[in-house]
Amino acid sequence: MHMEIEAIAQRKREITDKFGEWTNHNIRLDDDIYTIGQQITGAEVKLRRILQAIADIVDRPFEKLRVLDLACLEGLYGIELALHGAEVVAIEGREANIEKARFVKDVLSLHNLQLVQDDVRNLSREKYGCFDVVLCIGIFYHLDAPDVFSFLEQIADVCQKLVILDTHVSMSAEKCYIYKEQKYWGCSYVEHKDNSTAEEKNKSLWASLENLTSFWLTRASLYNLLSESGFTSVYECHNPAVIKYEIMRQRKEADRNTFLGIKGKRKNIISSPIANKIAQERWPEKEELEL
């Protein structure tokens, strides 16, 4: 049973008094009550893309899907999928975000949504099980090396079909890391000041939990890492479009898009078996192509 409207409004005031206003996820609670207001934010625009990609690629009823929402922020994506009937586990590192998501869960009576306050780097099959779909929306580019590499391997281990990775990528190959004897290129990005306190880091809701810098992979290195982590196909999503939102968020040194990694079985060619002996090539960096 849903809360009464007055109780919803009162509880929302209590949440915002303690944890601050919602920063990004605008969710309808009842009638004209929204977490932010009657307006469209970028997150809802991107949600349409993610929802459609899952429907088109997984091709199973949502009620039969188990979904993982990593670093769920205020819970929009996991909440939407739970509303469609999926079994959802959403992990978030900050108390302010997880409490806002819990409030919405209670208001909407989403018994198929499990919210866990945890560091996403603790992800494992033993702890959380396996999932048909893994959402990695806006967290990948907040991790530093080597965590960014092992994290994608952890995702691959729990993902049975589809990972949706919405992330910034570096437009230049400035730094190189070697992980499991393979080279990966990208650039560093500042998350917190060197003298930031633990409290200041915790209040920075759109930054890393504690690492001072993060490592943004180039597109080529991201493609390579996805492939080497076990995803047999990798795509970039362009429609449904989020053009206005992306233009507003453009940065000179970075780009961002939604990447789809599909976990399948590698197929052999029958008509020309000799082609099966060709080793899978790694994507070269842009600088290498220009040589």
3D architecture notes:
The chain is an alpha/beta fold and 291 residues long. It has a single domain, classed as Rossmann fold. The protein has helices at residues 5-19, 42-58, 76-83, 95-108, 125-128, 147-158, 198-203, 219-228, 243-248, 286-289; strands spanning 28-30, 33-34, 66-70, 87-92, 113-117, 131-137, 159-170, 175-179, 182-190, 213-217, 233-237, 254-262. It has a 7-stranded mixed sheet with strand order 5-4-3-6-7-12-11. It has a 3-stranded antiparallel sheet with strand order 8-9-10. It has a two-stranded antiparallel sheet with strand order 1-2. Strand 3 (66-70), helix 3 (76-83) and strand 4 (87-92) form a beta-alpha-beta unit. Helix 1 packs antiparallel against helix 4 (95-108). The longest helix is centred in the N-terminal third of the chain and has 17 residues, at 42-58. The model has no long low-confidence stretch (mean pLDDT 91).
